C-alpha cells in the first residue's frame, strides 16, 4: 500500500486532530442511495457517536469505512493513509478494528481461543512454523496472559474455557469488544454495541466504552437510540437517509430541529419506502435472532 | 385453489398430449427405418448419388439392405417390431464398390456406423461423399440445426429446473435429490405402461400427478421436519445427497439398469425446413413444455398463491409478517415442483429414453441452468435453461460431441465467478 | 460361504486398500470441510489428477514411479490454485456447485475419446504399478492371521497406506493445535469476524484447499497403486459423496475422524454386501429371487449408504463419537 497522504479538506474541518477523514462517500443499491456522505471526520482520542434512525445507512457506512463493502465513489484516510480499496484485514492491521451489529463470536471455539485469535503478528499463524510448538509457544503464553487480563476486565475470565456459543447475548458483545482489543487498535469501531443487550448490562457496556477512551483509544460507535449516547460521547454525528444531517456536541445536536425531524420523520411518516421497511424488518429480525440465539445457548 | 391449479394443469396437459398423437400418427409406419441421403459435393449444388448399396447388420449377419434412389436418399426398414429392437446394436455399412467412379467417401475408413437403438425413432446415417463443403451454407445449417436442438433441450431443462429453483427460492434448500424427482416421473409412467399396459397419455398424466404427491411426500416426511428442527442449510444439502443416493439405488433395485422406452408415441417422419430437420415428436414435446411453462409463469404472476410465492422468495420474514401462510406456499411449491420435475422426466424419456438415473445425469445441467438465471427466480431459470440448452448443442459445432456437457459445466463455473447472483438475479446486499 | 466368512470378509475390507483410499481422501476433506468449512464437492477431482498423473506419466510417457508421484502431488497444487483463486470468494453453496461442476468437467475431459492416446478414454490407465511391486517386501504367499487373508501386494499397500494415514493424522494434529489451525477453525465459524481481526482469510482458505487437495491426490495415487488402474468411473461425483459419508461418520474436525470413519464405513458396507450376497446366493437362497435377486443384493449397500448419510447428518452431525457443542454442523 503506497502511503498516499492527502491533505484533508480543511475547509470544513472543525476539529484539530482527525484520525479518520472521509469525503464524498456514496453507495447505491439498485436505485436506492444508501450512503451519501459529503464529509466525515473522527477526532483522535474522543468518543464519536454515529446515530440515526433505522435504515439511515449507518451500518452500510461502517462497512464502507472498514473495507467490508465497496463504495461507488469517495475517498477516506486513516492517519493520513488512503483506505480506498484496502481489504478489511489490512484495514484492521492498520489499527482500525470493528465489531458487528450481529455479534460474530466463534461459537465452537472456546472463549480464550476467540481472544487469542485477535492477537496480531503471531508466528504460529504461518504454515510451517505452526508445526513446531517451540517456535510459537512463548508468544502464545504472552497472548494468553494479555487475553486473561482483558477477560478479567470484562468480567469474562470465569468463562475462559467455555465455548463462546454458550455465552449470553450481552456476554457475546463483551467478548467481541475484548477480542477487538487484542488487536490493540488505535480506533475501535463498535456497531450497535447495545443492541439486544438487557438494560442492566447496558450501563456496564457504556462504562467499558468510556474506559476505552480513557486508555487513549479513539472510539466510533453506531447507535440508533439517541438517549444512549448523550452521556458518553464527545461528538455526535447524525445520519438520516444516507446523509449526515447534523453533528456537534451531544446537547447541541439533540436540540437540533433537523435531528428531531429525522427521527420523528422516520418513525412516523406514513410513506416509508419499501427498502426502509425492509431494513427496519431486517434489524428487528436481527434482534430476534440474537435473542433466540442467546436463549438457545443459555 | 390448489386443486383448481392442478386441474387446470392436467387439462392443459391432457389436451396437448392428445394433440401429440393425431398429426404424428398420420405419418406413422411401424418399423424403424435407417435413413439418409447421399450427395456428392464435388459439384455445387451437390449431386445425388443413386444406386449405392447400404446394408444393416446385427451380430455380424445382414438383416436388411437397400439402395439409394434417384434423389440419393435411402430408407431401410428394420425387420421386427420397434419394441423388440430396443437396446440392440446394429451396424450400418456402405458398399463402397457400388459408389460411382470418382465419388469417394470423404473419410474412406468410415464405411460403417455402429448404432445402439434407444428409441423407436428413425435412425439417420450420413455418409459424406466428395470434399468437405466449407461453404457458409453448410455451417449455417449446422448452426440452425444446433440452435433448434438447443432450444428443445433448453425447454426440457426449464421444466426440470423450475421446481429446483422454486424450492431454493422459498426454502433455501439446494436439493441434490432433485434429479430423483425427475426420474420418479419417468419411471412411474413407464411402470403404468409396462405393468398395466396403459396407453402413454393416461400413464403420463397419472405419473405427473403422482410426482406432485411424491414432491409433497418429500417435504412432509423429510424437509419440513428438518426445517422444524432448525437444521442448517449445509446440513440439509448433505441430507439431500444421502436421499439422492438412497432413491437412485431404490429405483435401480426395482427397474434395473436398462435403458427404457415408452411405447405408443411414434416419432413420425422428420419435417424438413430447408435443410434443418425437426422431428414432430420433439416439436410436440417442445410445445407441451412451452405451454406448461407459460401456465406456471402466469400462475406465479397472476394468482394470489403465485404472488405469495414470490413474496416468500423475496423475503420470508416480511412475507410471514404480512400474513402470508408461508407453510402453505412451501407445500404448494413442493407439489408443483415435483409435478414439473416428473413431467420433465417423462418428456426427457420420450426424447432420449431413460434409465434409473436419468435425473441424476442431467442434475448438473439443471443446476447450471438455475444458477445461470439467478437462483430462485422464475424468469431467470427459464432464460438460464434455454441458454444452457443452446450452449450444450452449439458447442458440438466446435468440440467433439462427447464434451458437450463440459461446455455447460465450464460456463456454470465461470458464471458463478463473474456474476454469482446469475444473469437476471439481484446483486446481494452486503452487511 | 459361512457366516464367519461374512465377518472376516467385512473386516478384510474394513482395513483393506479401499478403506485406505477413502481414509486419505477424507483426511484431505477434513481440512477443507471439517476445519475450514469449505464445502468442496470436487474432492474426486483432486484424487483424479493425482491418480491420472501417476497412471499416464508411467504408462503413456514411460516415467519412473517416484517422479510421477511427485508430479501427481504438484498437479493437485495446480488444481487447487486454478480452482481456488476464483471460487474461494464464493458463498458456501455456490462453492459447492462450482467445485462439483469443475470436477465433473475435468472427469469428462480426461475420459474423452479425443484424449484416448494420452489418458485411455473410459478404460483409463492400467498396469503401471511395476515400480511399486518391485518395492514389495511382503512374502509372496500373502499374509494370513485370525482367519483373515490378504494377498501379498494388498498387504504391502495396506502397510504403506495406513502408515501414511497415521503420519498424516499426526501432521493434522500438529497443525490444528497451532494458531494456524485456530485461524482455519475461526474461518469455519465466521470469516468476517476473522477478517475484522486482521487475518487474510483468502490466503488461509487457499492454504487449506491446497493442503487438503494434495492429500486428496495422495488418495488418488494410492487408488491407482492399489488397483493398478485409474478410470473415469473411479472419480465420479459419488466418490466425493462417499468421502463425505466417511468423514461424517468419523466426525468432522476430529483428527482421527477419517480413520474411524473409513474403518466403520468399509466394514459396514462390505458386511452388508456380503450379507445380502449370501442371503441371495445358492440354489435355494434364504431370500427368494422374487424378492431380491443377486443383482439387487449388490444395491443394498448403496441404499443403506444413502440412508446412513441422511440419518447421521440429521441425528448425529458431530459424528459417532463427536462432541455436539464443538462439532455439530449447524446453520452457518
Automatic annotation (TrEMBL), chain A:
Coiled-coil region: none
Single GO MF descriptor: ATP hydrolysis activity
InterPro entries the record matches: AAA+_ATPase, ABC_AA/LPS_Transport, ABC_transporter-like_ATP-bd, ABC_transporter-like_CS, BCA_ABC_TP_C, P-loop_NTPase
Keyword set, alphabetical order: ATP-binding, Nucleotide-binding, Transport
Protein name: ABC transporter ATP-binding protein
UniProt domain ABC transporter: residue ranges: 20-266
Keyword Methyltransferase among UniProt keywords: no
Record-level GO cellular component terms: plasma membrane
Top-rank taxon: Bacteria
Classification lineage: Bacteria, Bacillati, Actinomycetota, Actinomycetes, Propionibacteriales
KW ATP-binding (keyword) present: yes
Xref: SMART domains: AAA
Gene3D superfamilies found in the cross-reference section: P-loop containing nucleotide triphosphate hydrolases
Pfam family of the protein (one): ABC_tran
UniProtKB/TrEMBL annotation, chain B:
Membrane-spanning residues: 150-168, 175-192, 198-218, 230-251, 282-300, 329-350, 362-391, 403-422
Topological relation to the membrane, as annotated: Multi-pass membrane protein
Chief subcellular location: membrane
One Pfam family here: BPD_transp_2
Taxonomic superkingdom: Bacteria
Keyword Transmembrane among record annotations: yes
GO MF entry, a single one: L-phenylalanine transmembrane transporter activity
InterPro entries referenced in this protein's UniProt entry, alphabetically: ABC_transp_permease, BCAA_transport_permease
Keyword Transmembrane helix: yes
A single GO cellular-component term on record: plasma membrane
Any one of the GO BP annotations: L-isoleucine import across plasma membrane
Signal peptide positions on this chain: 1-26
CDD domains: TM_PBP1_LivH_like (cd06582)
Keywords annotated in UniProt: Amino-acid transport, Cell inner membrane, Cell membrane, Membrane, Signal, Transmembrane, Transmembrane helix, Transport
Compartment list: Cell membrane
Family: Belongs to the binding-protein-dependent transport system permease family. LivHM subfamily.
Listed name of the protein: Branched-chain amino acid ABC transporter permease
TrEMBL record, chain C:
CDD domains attached to this UniProt entry: TM_PBP1_LivM_like
Cellular component, GO, one term: plasma membrane
Domain of life per record: Bacteria
Sequence intervals crossing the membrane: 15-33, 69-88, 155-176, 208-229, 241-269, 298-315
Subcellular location: Cell membrane
Membrane topology per record: Multi-pass membrane protein
InterPro entries on file: ABC_transp_permease, LivM-like
UniProt keyword annotation of Transmembrane present: yes
Entry's Gene Ontology molecular function annotations: branched-chain amino acid transmembrane transporter activity
Stretches of the chain forming a coiled coil according to its record: none
UniProt keyword terms in alphabetical order: Cell membrane, Membrane, Transmembrane, Transmembrane helix
Classification via Pfam families: BPD_transp_2
Protein name (Swiss-Prot/TrEMBL): Branched-chain amino acid ABC transporter permease
Lineage per the UniProt record: Bacteria, Bacillati, Actinomycetota, Actinomycetes, Propionibacteriales
Amino acid at each position: 500500500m503506497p502511503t498516499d497522504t492527502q491533505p484533508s479538506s480543511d475547509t470544513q474541518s472543525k476539529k484539530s486532530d482527525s484520525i479518520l477523514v472521509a469525503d464524498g462517500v456514496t453507495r447505491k443499491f439498485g436505485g436506492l442511495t444508501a450512503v451519501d456522505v459529503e464529509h466525515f471526520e473522527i477526532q483522535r482520542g474522543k468518543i464519536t457517536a454515529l446515530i440515526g434512525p433505522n435504515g439511515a445507512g449507518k451500518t452500510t457506512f461502517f462497512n464502507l469505512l472498514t473495507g467490508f463493502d465497496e463504495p461507488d465513489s469517495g475517498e477516506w484516510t486513516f492517519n493520513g493513509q488512503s483506505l480506498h480499496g484496502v481489504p478489511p484485514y489490512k484495514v484492521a492491521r492498520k489499527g482500525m478494528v470493528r465489531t458487528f451489529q450481529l455479534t460474530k463470536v466463534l461459537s465452537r471455539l472456546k472463549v480464550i481461543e476467540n481472544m487469542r485469535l485477535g492477537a496480531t503478528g503471531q508466528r504460529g499463524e504461518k504454515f510451517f512454523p505452526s508445526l513446531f510448538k517451540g517456535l510459537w509457544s512463548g508468544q502464545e503464553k504472552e497472548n494468553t496472559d494479555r487475553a486473561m487480563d482483558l477477560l478479567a476486565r470484562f468480567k469474562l475470565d470465569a468463562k475462559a474455557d467455555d465455548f463462546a456459543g454458550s455465552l449470553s447475548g450481552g456476554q457475546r458483545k463483551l467478548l467481541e469488544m475484548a477480542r477487538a482489543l487484542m488487536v490493540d487498535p488505535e480506533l475501535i469501531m463498535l456497531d450497535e454495541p447495545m443492541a439486544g443487550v438487557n438494560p442492566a448490562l447496558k450501563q456496564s457496556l457504556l462504562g467499558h466504552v468510556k474506559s476505552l477512551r480513557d486508555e487513549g483509544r479513539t472510539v466510533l460507535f453506531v447507535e440508533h437510540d439517541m438517549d444512549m449516547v448523550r452521556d458518553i460521547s464527545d461528538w455526535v454525528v447524525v445520519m438520516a437517509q444516507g446523509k449526515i444531517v447534523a453533528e456537534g456536541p451531544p446537547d447541541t445536536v439533540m436540540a437540533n430541529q433537523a435531528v428531531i425531524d429525522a427521527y420523528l420523520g422516520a418513525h412516523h411518516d406514513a410513506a416509508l419506502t419499501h427498502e426502509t421497511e425492509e431494513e427496519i424488518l431486517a434489524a428487528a429480525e436481527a434482534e430476534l435472532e440474537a435473542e433466540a440465539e442467546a436463549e438457545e445457548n443459555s | 385453489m390448489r386443486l383448481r391449479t392442478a386441474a387446470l394443469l392436467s387439462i392443459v396437459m391432457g389436451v396437448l398430449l392428445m394433440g401429440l398423437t393425431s398429426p404424428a400418427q398420420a405419418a406413422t409406419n411401424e418399423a424403424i427405418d435407417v435413413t439418409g441421403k447421399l450427395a456428392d459435393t464435388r459439384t455445387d449444388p451437390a449431386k445425388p448419388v443413386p444406386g449405392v448399396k447400404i446394408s444393416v447388420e446385427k451380430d455380424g449377419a445382414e438383416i436388411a439392405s437397400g439402395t439409394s434412389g434417384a434423389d440419393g436418399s435411402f430408407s431401410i426398414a428394420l425387420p421386427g417390431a420397434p419394441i423388440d429392437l430396443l437396446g440392440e446394436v446394429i451396424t450400418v455399412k456402405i458398399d463402397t464398390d457400388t459408389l460411382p467412379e470418382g465419388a469417394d467417401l470423404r473419410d474412406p475408413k468410415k464405411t460403417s456406423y455402429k448404432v445402439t437403438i434407444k428409441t423407436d425413432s428413425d435412425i439417420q446415417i450420413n455418409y459424406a461423399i466428395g470434399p468437405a463443403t466449407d461453404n457458409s451454407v453448410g455451417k449455417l445449417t449446422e448452426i440452425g440445426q444446433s440452435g433448434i436442438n438447443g432450444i428443445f433441450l433448453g425447454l426440457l431443462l426449464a421444466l426440470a429446473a423450475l421446481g429446483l429453483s422454486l424450492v431454493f427460492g422459498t426454502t433455501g434448500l439446494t436439493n441434490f435429490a432433485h434429479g430423483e424427482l425427475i426420474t420418479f416421473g419417468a419411471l412411474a409412467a413407464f411402470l403404468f405402461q409396462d405393468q398395466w399396459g396403459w396407453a402413454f397419455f393416461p400413464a403420463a398424466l397419472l405419473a405427473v400427478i403422482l410426482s406432485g404427491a411424491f414432491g409433497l411426500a418429500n417435504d412432509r416426511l423429510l424437509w419440513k421436519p428438518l426445517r422444524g428442527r432448525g437444521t442448517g442449510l449445509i446440513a440439509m444439502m448433505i441430507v439431500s445427497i444421502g436421499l439422492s443416493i438412497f432413491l437412485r439405488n431404490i429405483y435401480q433395485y426395482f427397474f434395473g439398469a436398462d435403458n427404457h422406452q415408452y411405447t405408443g408415441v411414434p416419432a413420425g417422419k422428420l419435417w424438413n425446413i430447408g435443410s434443418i430437420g425437426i422431428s414432430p415428436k420433439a416439436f410436440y414435446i417442445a410445445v407441451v413444455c412451452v405451454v406448461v411453462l407459460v401456465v406456471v409463469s402466469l400462475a406465479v404472476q397472476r394468482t394470489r398463491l403465485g404472488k405469495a410465492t414470490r413474496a416468500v422468495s423475496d423475503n420470508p420474514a416480511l412475507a410471514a409478517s404480512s400474513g402470508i401462510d408461508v407453510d402453505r406456499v412451501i407445500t404448494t411449491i413442493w407439489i408443483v415442483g415435483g409435478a414439473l420435475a416428473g413431467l420433465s422426466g417423462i418428456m426427457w424419456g420420450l426424447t432420449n429414453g431413460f434409465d434409473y438415473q436419468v435425473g441424476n445425469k442431467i442434475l448438473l445441467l439443471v443446476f447450471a441452468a438455475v444458477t445461470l438465471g439467478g437462483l430462485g427466480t422464475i424468469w431467470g431459470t427459464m432464460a438460464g435453461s434455454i441458454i444452457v440448452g443452446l450452449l450444450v448443442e452449439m458447442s458440438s459445432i466446435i468440440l467433439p460431441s462427447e464434451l458437450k456437457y463440459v461446455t455447460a459445466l465450464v460456463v456454470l463455473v465461470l458464471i458463478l465467478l463473474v456474476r454469482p447472483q446469475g444473469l437476471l438475479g439481484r446483486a446481494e446486499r452486503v452487511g | 460361504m459361512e457366516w464367519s466368512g461374512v465377518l472376516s470378509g467385512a473386516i478384510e475390507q474394513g482395513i483393506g486398500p479401499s478403506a485406505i483410499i477413502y481414509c486419505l481422501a477424507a483426511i484431505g476433506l477434513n481440512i477443507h470441510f471439517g476445519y475450514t468449512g469449505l464445502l468442496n464437492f470436487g474432492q474426486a477431482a483432486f484424487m483424479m489428477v493425482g491418480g491420472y498423473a501417476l497412471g499416464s506419466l508411467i504408462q503413456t510417457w514411460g516415467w519412473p514411479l517416484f517422479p510421477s508421484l511427485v508430479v501427481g502431488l504438484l498437479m493437485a497444487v495446480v488444481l487447487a490454485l486454478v480452482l481456488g483463486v476464483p471460487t474461494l470468494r464464493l458463498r458456501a453453496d455456490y462453492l459447492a456447485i462450482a467445485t462439483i461442476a469443475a470436477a465433473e468437467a475435468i472427469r469428462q475431459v480426461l475420459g474423452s475419446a479425443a484424449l484416448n492416446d494420452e489418458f485411455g478414454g473410459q478404460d483409463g490407465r492400467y498396469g503401471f504399478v511395476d515400480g511399486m511391486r518391485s518395492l514389495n517386501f511382503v512374502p509372496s504367499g500373502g499374509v494370513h492371521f485370525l482367519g483373515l487373508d490378504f494377498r501379498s501386494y494388498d498387504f504391502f499397500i495396506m502397510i504403506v497406506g495406513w502408515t501414511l494415514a497415521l503420519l498424516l493424522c499426526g501432521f493434522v494434529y500438529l497443525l490444528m493445535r497451532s494458531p494456524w489451525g485456530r485461524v482455519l477453525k475461526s474461518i469455519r465459524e465466521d470469516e468476517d469476524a476473522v477478517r475484522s481481526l486482521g487475518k487474510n482469510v483468502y490466503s488461509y482458505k487457499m492454504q487449506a484447499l491446497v493442503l487438503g487437495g494434495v492429500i486428496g491426490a495422495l488418495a488418488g495415487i494410492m487408488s491407482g497403486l492399489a488397483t493398478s488402474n485409474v478410470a473415469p468411473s473411479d472419480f465420479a461425483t459419488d466418490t466425493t459423496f462417499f468421502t463425505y459419508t466417511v468423514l461424517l461418520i468419523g466426525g468432522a474436525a476430529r483428527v482421527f475422524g477419517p480413520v474411524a470413519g473409513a474403518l466403520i464405513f468399509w466394514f459396514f458396507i462390505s458386511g452388508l454386501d456380503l450379507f445380502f450376497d449370501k442371503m441371495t446366493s445358492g440354489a435355494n437362497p434364504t431370500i427368494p429371487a422374487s424378492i431380491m435377486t443377486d443383482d439387487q443384493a449388490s444395491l443394498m449397500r448403496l441404499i443403506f449408504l444413502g440412508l446412513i448419510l441422511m440419518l447421521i447428518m440429521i441425528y448425529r452431525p458431530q459424528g459417532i463419537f463427536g462432541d455436539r457443542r464443538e462439532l455439530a454442523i449447524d446453520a452457518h
